[in-house]
Fold:
Amino acid sequence: MKEDIDSLTQDLLLMRYMYYYHSSPVVTDYFYDLLERLLVRLEHEAPEYRWDNSPSITVGDSRFNEEYEKLLPEFKKRWVDGLNYTMPEIT
Structure:
């Protein structure tokens, strides 16, 4: 559960970063919303793993910095160069 929350949180934050700071959306708004709803559900099941700056509880993040730039190559490999994200089952 922790790994799913960590991965999804990081990806959603990087999607925001790409959208707002690079004017380059990676996924549709609809798909982003689905991922965010999944995150809310996972965090509800395991609130101890929610990040302080989780997209589920923030409306933007002023903490975007050079750390995000360092994460972009791996992020782009997963999302931009070919969508290979496997969503957990939603029941």
About this structure: The mean pLDDT is 79. The helical segments are 2-21, 29-45, 66-79. The first helix runs from residue 2 to 21.
